[in-house]
Amino acid sequence: MMAIATELAPADTALPPVHLQAGPAGADTDPLDFALLNDFQRGFPLVAEPWAELGARLGCSADEVLARLARLRDGGKVSRVGPVFAPNRIGASTLAAMAVPVGDLPRVAAIVNAFAGVNHNYRREHRYNLWFVASSTDEAALARLLADMGAATGCPPIALPLVEEFHIDLGFDLASGRRTRHVVDPAAPRPRLSAADWRLIDALHDGLPWLARPYQAVAEAAGLTESVVLDTLAGWQADGTLRRFGVVVKHRELGYRANAMCVWAVPEAKVSRLGHLLASHDGVSLCYRRRLDGDWPYNLFCMIHGRSREAVAARREALAAEVGLAGYPHAVLFSTDCYKQCGARYQAPAP
């Protein structure tokens, strides 16, 4: 079983109505909206009528919960309510990048987006300026997918697969920036997924439907029962297959308008120790070691989100000094455009 240790920020649990208040990231957000955005990024109720459960916790009706979440979705603040799978627990995935002539970026980004295996695609400030996450059924299929992208765009991608995870979870507290830290057993076995499991994964790709009993609708789409769906999701949370299940927010629309991928070239003998140390600090939303490819020299990555470039740059400088990274070659890749952001679409392996 995958061992997961967590350090919970106070806002990681639902707050009673008397304590509802918008933090700095939600200064102009209705307190109830802020609670829905912030407090249920993880730990979303796995019960037959989850919207009613949320309403009971927040002092409102299930209909109001649904109406507010739908409005937040339509306003671009919520991507979906559903699963976030842990990296490389099902299928195969990698971070990839292309060096694209600036004038050709819209065309190339559109071609990349059209591949079903792409779930995030951003422009970043670097010679490698198009960064995306690609997923497929297995390593061989993933390699074919990347080769097809290179052929279709004329820009061969570099592939930077995950080697070691230090912290991966964008479900951080929107007011304080604190987050739940995951410590993952690298030797944990991958889950053995049945055909029914794969049908459930496919049915959940776009998140829960906005119905009174959403798990029942998911179960019908997957050819399962509601109780099997709830039990399976609970089991995946327990064994680490699911990183979290809940409200998936869009941080840029919530005031975190600056984010940077910060990278360092660290000797392999030191990268694990420094990566764990870096990941222990609040403000680091993603942190991992990746395999090198081509002329890309950086093996230690972290993501920092903030309300301004200046805030992100200052936090990066402080972290580098505190962790002991200041002396290593580094780069800071700010994101400037988002071409695609959705949940990963996982496909069952061929029978």
Provide structural commentary.
With 351 residues, this protein is an alpha+beta fold. It has 10 helices and 11 strands. The protein has helices at residues 31-38, 50-58, 62-74, 105-113, 139-153, 195-203, 214-222, 226-239, 268-279, 309-323, and strands at residues 78-85, 92-98, 118-124, 130-136, 158-160, 162-168, 242-249, 258-264, 284-290, 300-306, 330-341. The strands form 2 sheets. A 9-stranded antiparallel sheet has the order 5-2-4-3-11-8-10-9-6. Helix 2 (50-58) packs across helix 3 (62-74). The chain is globular, with a radius of gyration of 20 Å. The two termini are 26 Å apart. The model is unreliable at 1-27 (pLDDT under 50).
Side by side, the strands of the main sheet go 5-2-4-3-11-8-10-9-6
Helix and strand sequence: HHHEEHEEHEEHHHEEHEEHE
**Poorly predicted residue ranges:** 1-27
Instruction: Estimate the global geometry from the Cα principal axes.
Output: globular
Looking at this protein, list some descriptive labels.
10 helices, two-stranded antiparallel sheet, about 350 residues, 9-stranded antiparallel sheet
Write the layout of secondary structure elements.
Blueprint: H1 31-38, H2 50-58, H3 62-74, E1 78-85, E2 92-98, H4 105-113, E3 118-124, E4 130-136, H5 139-153, E5 158-160, E6 162-168, H6 195-203, H7 214-222, H8 226-239, E7 242-249, E8 258-264, H9 268-279, E9 284-290, E10 300-306, H10 309-323, E11 330-341
